[in-house]
User: What shape does this take?
Amino acid sequence: DQQVKQNSPSLSVQEGRISILNCDYTNSMFDYFLWYKKYPAEGPTFLISISSIKDKNEDGRFTVFLNKSAKHLSLHIVPSQPGDSAVYFCAASEGDKIIFGKGTRLHILP
Amino acid sequence: DAGITQSPRYKITETGRQVTLMCHQTWSHSYMFWYRQDLGHGLRLIYYSAAADITDKGEVPDGYVVSRSKTENFPLTLESATRSQTSVYFCASNPTGRNYGYTFGSGTRLTVV
Assistant: This one.
């Protein structure tokens, strides 16, 4: 049973526009949520996280929103740049470990 | 070099053989993790370790064995490799708890023929 779901396998966005990546979860006991970015042939790199007691966290062009009642979080990238083309993984922490979604491939179009 | 390194980078092995993937980190992070990445499944946790000599199962532990005799090393062994274990394997480490992002290695691409 998938506890962290990314229902969009891919997303294409024009350069300069906003990219919105979505994630749903089922376990209300998750206490931290994270986003990772992955380029081909490299390991994932940590982007941004949010505590379950907050509803927004911002870091430069990246903002994560958390809606606990809907068990939904989203990552906003503004403005989108060519280097943002990658696979983005949503993740949630449960105890000592992190559970990942399947990922969304983001294509930034020129 | 400081960081987390995995070896080998690529490995081809035959069904039934034992193979060990290595992971080494230089930060003395307490936590270390092994994930596998497969198309359609994302990243799935195999095993993790909170400290030397402490290991625990993740989502998909069957067919794998881990050990952690030293803080800096966390090898993953496939006791008798199967084709379903063909995957990209990532090791990660974390200084304390889960609210910090993990640092991942570059991965090992394993093919079982």
